[in-house]
Amino acid sequence: MPIETIHTQSPGCKRFLRDMQNAEPLREFTQTPPSTDDAQWPNTTLVMMTKYPTPGRVKTRLGCEIGMERAAELHELFTRHLSDQLASAGDQRVIALTPDSYLARFEGDLDNLDWQLTGQGGGDLGDRMARLFQTYLNEHRGPVRVVLTGTDCPLLTDREIADAAEKLLDNDIVVGPAIDGGYYLIGIRSPWKDAYAALFSEIPWGTRDVFTTTKQRVSAAELSLAVLPLKADIDTTEDLGRFCAHLEASRHSSPLLAELCDHVNAILGVGESETRETHP
């Protein structure tokens, strides 16, 4: 799905654009600088879960305000940006797509050869996450660390993935909590244990209780846990406004951020000259 400027703005999108002009960056959007160390982290597999960008099926909360087409384009943009941003993270990188029926179409659009592509399979979110962990934890005979993330935190860097993997040297689980009560990253070290299954079964996905419930399950199973810094997902127009303000403030720090900023502005119908006047 191409990224292009949309001139016809819904009332919700117009309100968002007005609010965005006065938005302040959240510290939780602060991006850890990319690692300058080219060394790979052995036995670490990064799995990025994403959905095919069908309007009305991705980022629907955001879509109710800015339009489902725009929300789907942002989702696609975040997936592509992360595939570039994390292209050197770990020693194996996998994009796990749902629904599986779109694998062939997505593969034709995927121009980043640093990633493998697989389907998530059936079941709820927990079923799919557990299946991915079992698959990649059991793929190698030696010690393996699997780090799983989504696409709602597009400023994740290879250094942050490396930090998560490092914490798995001394802990069974690593989790990156999100402001909305969920989490943006979870990692597990091999071997797969039956106790891990409880982390993904009957979890109230999509609620503010996800991280708290996960911590309780970890404690009940007597597993060790490391917690990463808090970050903000981009699920609402408020989240998006703060994210855009952060992008404008830091666009000159890297070419990838500048490109991401320009594409976000294009999707939201913000002209370059308007952006410069609003965000010096």
UniProtKB/TrEMBL annotation:
InterPro entries: Nucleotide-diphossugar_trans (IPR029044), Trfase_1_rSAM/seldom-assoc (IPR018641). GO terms for molecular function: phospholactate guanylyltransferase activity. It comes from the Bacteria. Keywords: Nucleotidyltransferase, Transferase. Its EC number is 2.7.7.68. The keyword Electron transport does not apply. Pfam families: DUF2064. This is 2-phospho-L-lactate guanylyltransferase.
